[in-house]
């Protein structure tokens, strides 16, 4: 049996193995009580286990007296927007994000329409009682439906003030969109059509039968690459099943890499709204180059979307996100939002009248190597402390594990929150250098 993953990002597991309907009901009921038995908005992605999870979650919430609003199959950013735009006390997105089809999960949002902040999330998971205190028959919650939230989400994206919608429409972009049969099919084609695009849909049926490995990494997007080339499209977009990560395929039918979704968004948005960028410690240093171009700074946070969102809100940042294709546009809301990312990228294309390859070529290219070392969980902290001493001659950042900052390269060593591994991420100006530095770092860690 695999371990159930309970972390600040929610409760995640393999359905029927460690994540059961009973457990979903219990966590949902606990979340209802945690949210003062207020109204809770629930949406899910397209997974085949979604209906079973949904009914368990709703049973839990109603039984503690929460009114529940069912959004049906929607993107995770749509759930968050629906919470923010209502008087709800919170939201639950039933999705295991980019994990394979046998997984499912619950992600919890607060009344502000943002995922629970780390402190609140820790309090929530730590306070799960042995026995739930259900409400009496007189105090049961009521279930209602809202089928309009995707439409409202699209409207909000179309109202981003720096987007020239007419200019985008005039370009009549030909776009192939691959939603891996996740929830993206519910929003991405409709949004793209409202931007005047000719849309070629690939895997846009929300069946939960994922057409390929669902994480939108280059190696999983071969079908999209071929389709973009075959249709001579201007661009290809891919999303993960819950539509918060965005990957792009160029007009040449080649993946440009997930890092570039955020970098392109940064370049366009900063040309319209001045302010500092926020991203996590493991995302590309090309953000620093872009920031320098616009005379602003980059703030680096711990890995984890909520850390980036929190910082963005605090400093009123116009753009931020994560290098895994997570674009955050505060004009829509504080969460990674792939549809908003698509609109921004098309806005940039329309503005510059260039191809996506040309826009990418104007951004400095660095090279990543990612690897990991397996070790016992209780040893990980000590190893990182020892590494801090071993790399004492370097400029170090200890915000999240250990980041070693060199001249045009960095090495980030951090323990996984969910597995007994230490991750090593390296970025430099050449693939050879990154491979070499990563290999050397792993050897060093093994000797400590
Ligand atoms: Mg996701």
**CATH architecture classification of the largest domain:** 3-Layer(aba) Sandwich
**CATH homologous superfamily classification of the largest domain:** Alpha-D-Glucose-1,6-Bisphosphate, subunit A, domain 3
Distance between the first and last residues' Cα: 32 Å
Per CATH, what is the topology of the largest domain? Alpha-D-Glucose-1,6-Bisphosphate, Chain A, domain 3
Percent helix range = 25-40%
- The radius of gyration is 22 Å
Strand content: 15-25%
- How are the strands ordered across the major sheet? 1-2-6-5-3-4-7
Descriptive tags:
448 residues, alpha/beta, Alpha-D-Glucose-1,6-Bisphosphate, Chain A, domain 3, TATA-Binding Protein, seven-stranded mixed sheet, 37% helix, globular, binds magnesium ion
Could you explain the architecture of this structure?
The chain has three domains: 5-147, Alpha-D-Glucose-1,6-Bisphosphate, subunit A, domain 3 (Alpha-D-Glucose-1,6-Bisphosphate, Chain A, domain 3, 3-Layer(aba) Sandwich); 152-361, 3-Layer(aba) Sandwich (Alpha-D-Glucose-1,6-Bisphosphate, Chain A, domain 3); 367-447, TATA-Binding Protein (2-Layer Sandwich), CATH 3.30.310.50. The chain starts with a strand and ends with a helix. By secondary structure, the chain is an alpha/beta fold. The strands form four sheets. A seven-stranded mixed beta sheet has the order 1-2-6-5-3-4-7, sandwiched between helices. Helix content is 37%, strand content 22%. It is built from 15 helices and 20 strands. Residues 97-98, 240, 242, 244-245 line the site of magnesium ion.
């Amino acid at each position: 049996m695999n371990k159930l993953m309970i972390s600040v990002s929610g409760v995640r597991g393999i359905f029927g193995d460690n994540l059961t309907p009973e457990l979903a009901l219990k966590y949902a009921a606990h979340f209802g009580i945690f949210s003062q038995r207020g109204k809770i908005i629930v949406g899910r992605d397209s997974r085949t286990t979604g209906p079973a999870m949904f009914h368990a979650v709703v049973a839990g919430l109603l039984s503690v007296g929460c009114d529940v609003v069912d959004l049906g199959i929607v993107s995770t950013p749509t759930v968050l927007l629906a919470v923010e735009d209502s008087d709800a006390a919170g939201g639950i997105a039933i999705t295991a994000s980019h994990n394979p089809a046998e997984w499912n999960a619950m992600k919890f949002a607060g009344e502000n329409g943002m995922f629970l902040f780390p402190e609140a999330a820790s309090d929530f998971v730590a306070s799960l009682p042995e026995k739930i205190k259900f409400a009496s028959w007189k105090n049961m919650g009521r279930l209602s439906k809202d089928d309009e939230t995707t439409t409202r989400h699209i409207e909000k994206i179309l109202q981003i003030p720096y987007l020239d919608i007419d200019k985008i429409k005039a370009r009549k972009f030909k776009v192939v969109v691959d939603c891996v049969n996740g929830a993206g099919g519910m929003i991405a084609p409709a949004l793209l059509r409202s931007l005047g695009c000719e849309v070629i849909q690939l895997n846009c049926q929300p069946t939960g039968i994922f057409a390929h490995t669902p994480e939108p990494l280059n190696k999983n997007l071969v079908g999209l690459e071929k389709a973009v080339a075959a249709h001579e499209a201007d661009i290809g977009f891919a999303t993960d099943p819950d539509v918060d990560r965005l990957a792009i395929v160029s007009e040449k039918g080649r993946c440009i890499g997930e890092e570039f979704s955020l970098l392109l968004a940064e370049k366009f948005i900063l040309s319209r709204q001045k302010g500092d960028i926020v991203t996590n410690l493991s995302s590309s240093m090309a953000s620093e180059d872009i920031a320098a171009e616009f005379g602003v700074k980059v703030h680096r946070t711990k890995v984890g979307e909520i850390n980036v969102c929190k910082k963005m809100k605090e400093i009123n940042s116009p753009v931020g996100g994560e290098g895994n294709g997570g674009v955050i546009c505060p004009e829509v809301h504080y969460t990674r939002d792939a549809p908003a990312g698509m609109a921004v990228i098309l806005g940039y294309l329309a503005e510059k009248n260039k191809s996506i390859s040309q826009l990418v070529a104007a951004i400095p290219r660095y090279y990543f190597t990612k690897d990991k070392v397996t070790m016992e969980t209780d040893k990980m902290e000590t190893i990182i402390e020892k590494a801090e001493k071993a790399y004492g001659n370097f400029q170090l950042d200890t915000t999240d594990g250990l980041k070693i900052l060199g001249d045009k390269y960095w090495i980030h060593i951090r323990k996984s929150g969910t597995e007994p591994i230490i991750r090593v991420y390296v970025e430099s100006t050449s693939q050879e250098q990154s491979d070499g530095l990563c290999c050397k770092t792993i050897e060093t860690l093994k000797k400590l």
